[in-house]
Amino acid sequence: MPFIEINGKKIEAEAGSMIIEVADCSNIQIPRFCYHKKLSIAASCRMCLVEVERAPKPLPACATPVTEGMKVWTRSPKALLAQKAVMEFLLINHPLDCPICDQGGECELQDLSMGYGQDASRYTEGKRVVKDKNIGSLIATDLTRCIQCTRCVRFGTEVAGIRELGATGRGECLEIGTFIEQSVSSELSGNMIDLCPVGALTSKPYRFTARGWELKQTPSIAPHDCVGSHIYVHTRRNQVMRVVPRENESINEAWVSDRDRFSYEALYHSDRLTQPKIKLKGEWQTVSWQIALEYIANRLSQIGSQHGANAIGALLSPNATLEEGYLLQKWMRGLGSHSIDHRLRQSDFRHQEGAPLFPGLGLPINELEQQSLVLLVGSDIRKEQPIIGLKLRKMALAGGKALVVNPVDVPFNFDIALKSIVCQGNLVLGLAKIAKALLNQSEIHFAKEAAWLASIEPEAVDIQMANLLRASGKKMIVMGALAASHPAFSQIKALTQLISELSGAKVGILTDGSNSAGAWLSGCIPHRLPGGKSVQGEAGFTIAEMFEKALKAYVLVNVEPHLDCIEGAKARRALEQAEFVVAINTFESPSLQKAVDVWLPLAPFSETSGTLVNTEGQWQSFVAVANPFEESRPGWKILRVLGNVCDIPDFDYETCEDVLAALRLEIGTPELTVIKPFCVDPIEYLANTDEIIRIAPIPLYASDGLVRRAPALQQTKDAGFRGLQINRTLATRLNLVGEAVRVQCEDCVMQLPLLIDEQMPDNTAMIFSGLEDTVSLGGPYSVLKLENI
Amino acid sequence: MTVILSLKAKQSIDAWLLKYPIDQKQSCVIHALKVLQDENGGWLTEGAIEAVAAYLAMPKIAVYEVATFYSMFELQPIGKHKISVCTNIACLLNNGDKIVQHLKKRLNIEWGETTQDGCFTLKEVECLAACDGAPAMQIGQIYYENLTPERIDDILATLEPKEIKDGK
Amino acid sequence: MANEICFRTLHLDTSWSLEAYQSVGGYSVWKKIFTDNITPASIIDELKLSSLRGRGGAGFPTGLKWSFISRGAPGQKYIVCNSDEGEPGTFKDRDILRFNPHQIIEGIAIAAYVMGASIGYHYVRGEFFEGFERIENALLEARKLGLIGKNILGSGFDFELHNVSGAGAYICGEETALMESIEGKKGFPRFKPPFPANYGVYGRPTNINNTETFASVPVILQHGGKWFLELGKPNNGGCKIFSVSGHVNAPGNYEIPLGTPFAKLLEMAGGMKGGRKLKAVIPGGSSAPVLTAHQMLDLTMDYDAISQAGSMLGSGAVIIMDETTCMVKVLLRIAHFYAEESCGQCTPCREGTGWMFRILQRIEAGKGSLKDLDQVLEIANGISGRTICALGDAAAMPVQSFLKHFRDEFESYINHQQCLAQTI
């Protein structure tokens, strides 16, 4: 490793690194604008010019590789002269409007101009004015302030993988923009706000609400997906003002998804519950906590003694904390019911007995990018797990192969080596063909499976996938939300396991919410206690059974079942027929008023401490960043008192940490027999029919109650309802001609706008779910009838 | 609305694409934009940019960047004949400003404007590399050099629509 | 001794045709390479001996440049010809393209052979429709005779030359911007290193030369490096085309030996228009520092002499200004050019060129102050040496030199709100 000298200080440098990297590691400040360690080198702002021995001109520190014995001066007269000249150039056309600029106080240009700028401008000509562009609801533009560093453009091209912003024109007229007022659609777009060194790109929801120096910064964990991105929550006077990424190289690097960044806007939504409420004789009454909790205890005890504890079931959001989950199941089990579930968007629970301790990726997130092959099964990864999408993109850019088996041809922001788009959502058939291709090449015998797959004919793409699977080194099969919600999810798991055995690929799954793993660990499943211990005696009901059996009482923890559960209509009907429904929720859902009997105001992630377990199994604890809003309370406290009022023993936790410690103790060292999900039954779905099957993804910004109420996210294209998407072949076959179609699913009929979409396979119709508009339409992969109106 | 590429345009682009490695289709963007600009009477619509992006599998913004960078692309409607007048040093030294004055007066337009009949657009350009024939201008593909007011009148007369000439 | 290198067909009818070119010995070198098995090393030696220097403006020794890429190096390599002529005052390549296209092709082909490149690009500025067509037709003729294409002249050597064009951007004359343009991007110059010899078109090793440089090669190899060197003077070998424009009676291209006295060139160009007095000369295109009449009349036209006088030979564009020339107006026009043609990528050039132009515009409008002169000079100094490509320096040098030699005139203009030299 070469030794170099910066400002007389001898430093051992990584060979091939740039002067600026070495300086950064040694805490030597070099001013810069276009350079960013996560982006390619532009070397265009020229702010980092430094003096290098024997170089006739100052050199950009960001683009000058170190060489043995190199001598660098970052603040010599020659370097300073250059830096000051560049600063003057940057400022001539930059408006001096810091007092009214949202970036004021946290602006890289403002900061550096203090050190390198002059007191007064020598520029007396007219300043450049650039027309602002509307690039969507998340990012505000003030392009007159732009200093053309192109970090935002490079972020889009290199990291997000969608080239939406560009630098158009030339010379003085070079300006950042989109192609003709098109909004930016990347699911990671907000990172450009952080990257922008000036106030040209600012957060539309946050701008003009606070100044950087008024904010208190608290580390936290993002509460929406199984990645568990590290974030900072910025508060002012006990109110959350914004969320920004907290760097963590092994998880989210320097980025955060737009969902994690902008969902905070919903925290003070008008739906927010402020006090416990009880419905008495059809009238809502605001009551004290004590009255509400005692009322619940009485009613549940009444129902328990009348109908048995099996008549009570509890649903927990997969976003709920580990502590909330632990106490919920402890309370429920204390009441005598094992019917606790968090698998809201799953319908096939066969073979749950042999499941591993928790479903997850099975390897550290940052090892994804080192895979040489990833086979994605049933996933619109960018819209399900934006940060995982970014990792897969890195893998593909590094030469890894991405293969896809999907029920709809969704766009990716990285190259897909091979894709198999299945008709009628039939992922089972898609996987069976790959498994068959592997079986055909295999020397290991899987007699039973081979017999079941006898009729399967692999196509060319399946054989190519099989070949790649066999030939690749580090490889992984990753299942997504479209697989987990499939009615034959157990078969999908069985086939991925078969493919894994035949190819040596690992298998992982990306689950809903931020804490599915934690919900499994803490025993929020009907058949297992905390730590994976089996329930003695009969297991409780799964969520599907809970709705089917029409229980007498339901307890909801941060769940809006009509939107969060796989079959919203069925869920709501079950609640409405029940005698008693308790909703411990952050928000009051107008469309659940009929079903719910007690609302308890639950503090969201920002107002409670807790722990989330991400897909790689990391336990990530966080603290409250603000006091609970009005009368709302942290979930662990509510559940702890519910345990007390119901006289459940061992419920004397003083702090959230106590709860966590108790859970850890109970989990101990899990002893668990994992049964690989081999094909224990004949495989279903091995042939396609001529029915029309619905694909029902959850839109990116409909994933949970917080996201659904975040105004800026709701104004984006990824928020919601579009209509019925089918391909032209199907529309022609059914002679669908109008702008809208009559859609029937079982006994529900509705009219939906017809959208022709050539990404749709044959006999497949896509209608988003998780939305008020389509609640009554049944679940994913159901059979639809389509007619003209 | 994305423009549908004409068969002729496709043929021209396809032939030009042969000059580049098959995985470097973007290289053809300048040529493709020229083809569409010529077909559309000298300027590029948004639809044309979208069509080129689609045909060459490029992000639209990347095509738009190119279209706004090179000075021979026009993004606004222009006249039938674009008169590109050089005003650089050699033309300046050879009374180029008189030529400019004459053109502006004769056509009754300023830089960047189009005559009311849509026949001429006047554009100031940088050195055309015809300094030995200064002052010089370019109309379409043709260079006109050693310009004098009289010569300009003659040139314009050959390009003006017939009815206007008759009406004079 | 004039017009014997790049313009050696000029005296013939349809000088651009294959017949005309072959009648002066065209393609004989190309054929001889294969019949006599001439080695790349010996070609480079001849070029080094000839002391041919890059004719595009930088004057880099061609033989040395050609030795950076070795024929045996694996992978795709490219040869690029830079016919993006746009430096104000320069119009030599346009005439080579129009009147002797085959010689360019032969030069490029020889380079391809020397460096083992199977693909070449000839990049013409978008405005040169005629020149583009002449190359296109010449390529057709050459392909027909098997001089270009697969298995050239039965040698087993393949070389395909593609003719491509720009669309109006001076910056694309900068070699890496030109490569970006070939790749279908904006003409943003690349940061160097890496240099084109390592990382050029599509990231592959690339050799790029100016049109006139390539066109000089066949003649050099035909008559030998020593012959060419002796046409000029040591370190300034051969003949070079000078594009003479401005206040002369016979503006035009003059291909003459390097080292020819300026006074002789002026005489060839018909002398001063209207018999007026010479005031100033820009000896190498608009980027080159201006020199006074007094300086010029003692100079010879070659790299070293012009450089010693504080300017540069550049592209060989000699812009002649007589006593009536308003230096403020000329500098304003040059400043306008660079502001217009800055790619906008790096800060000093993007911001500085516009700033200088606006101050000069104000001075020209009679609203300048003497302080402005220091300011504009400081801006030029602030740009100089701090940009990715040479356009920054190119924009700064005219300002620095005009103010060095003609500051009195600028001061007078500011004081009187007008030019006291006779109006031009």
Structure description:
The complex is a heterotrimer of chains A (789), B (168) and C (424). Chain A has 789 residues and is of the alpha/beta class. Helices cover 27% and strands 18% of the residues of chain A. In chain A, α8 runs parallel beside α20 and α8 packs across α21. With 168 residues, chain B is α+β, with helices and mostly antiparallel strands. Chain B folds into two domains: 63 residues, Arc Repressor Mutant, subunit A, CATH 1.10.10; 85 residues, Glutaredoxin, CATH 3.40.30. Chain B has a four-stranded mixed beta sheet with strand order 2-1-3-4, covered by helices on one side. The mean pLDDT of chain B is 94. Chain C is of the alpha/beta class and 424 residues long. Chain C starts with 17 loop residues before the first helix and ends in an 8-residue tail after the last helix. In chain C, α5 packs parallel to α7. Chain C has 17 helices and eleven strands. The model of chain C has no long low-confidence stretch (mean pLDDT 96). A five-stranded mixed beta sheet of chain C has the order 6-5-11-8-9, with helices on both faces. The chains are: A alpha/beta (789), B alpha+beta (168), C alpha/beta (424). Chains in contact: A-B, A-C, B-C.
